[in-house]
Amino acid sequence: MGARSASLTRPAVRADEEAMSFLARSLMVARRRLLSLSTVPRIGVRLLAVSPDEHVLLVKHTYVSGWHLPGGGLKTGERADEGAIREAWEESGHRVGAVDGLLGLYANFGVGWSDHVAVYVSRDITADVDLPVRPPSRLEIAAAAMFNLDELPPDICGSSLRRIEEWRGRRPLARDW
Questions:
Q1: Residues with Cβ within 8 Å of residue 34, at least 6 apart in sequence
Q2: Structural contact between residues 92 and 58, judged by C-beta atoms closer than 8 angstroms
Q3: Which residues 6+ apart lie within 8 Å of 145 measured at CB?
Q4: Chain segment 97-149, per-residue pLDDT in tens
Q5: Burial of residue 66 (number of CB atoms within 10 Å: 0-12, 13-18, 19+)
Q6: Element spanning 115, H or E
Q7: Which end is more exposed in the chain, N or C (fewer Cβ atoms within 10 Å of the end residue's Cβ)?
Q8: pTM of the predicted model over 0.85
Q9: Burial (0-12, 13-18, 19+ Cβ within 10 Å), 108
């Protein structure tokens, strides 16, 4: 029983939600194709938010499988640590306090363009606070939940699992995503 009962999961998927999910996947494919034409490096952020009782915040997207650390692209004029907190809120509806620091900056060239991901850590999140009924970003996010660090979901994405293991000291910090 890794996920807290306050997890966000979809009720029975309605036809309009399936259409939104298809639209989200289509928009992401189009965005990736356009970005692959650019030579400008991109900076993204992720947040490893861990509660005092050792639960980590993860989100499930509508356009890609598995559970992920919340995150995304920075807005113009936004500081990276503030962007990580904003993304956690937008994707989970969960307020995260201060960022403790930077875990690492990772190169991700496998996406078709020059992408770097800054992963921040925050211990300023409470696992027993109920998450909202649904994340604010309906088009992009299917679910959000707090998972015990020792009971992570089997379908957690590899990069998120590696970042958690690095933070826990179970593997050396990597350079690549």
A1: none
A2: no
A3: 3, 4, 6, 7, 8, 9, 57, 58, 67, 131
A4: 899 999 999 998 876 666 899 999 999 987 555 555 555 556 788 889 999 99
A5: middle
A6: strand 115-122
A7: N
A8: no
A9: middle
- Residue carrying the six token digits 């190169």: 107
| 3-state SS, residue 43 | strand
Q: How far is CA 132 from the centre of its chain?
A: 17
CB atoms within 10 A of CB 6: 15
The owner of tokens 């930077």 is: 102
Convert the pLDDT of each residue in 21-73 to its tens digit. 777 777 777 766 665 555 667 889 999 999 999 999 999 998 889 999 999 99
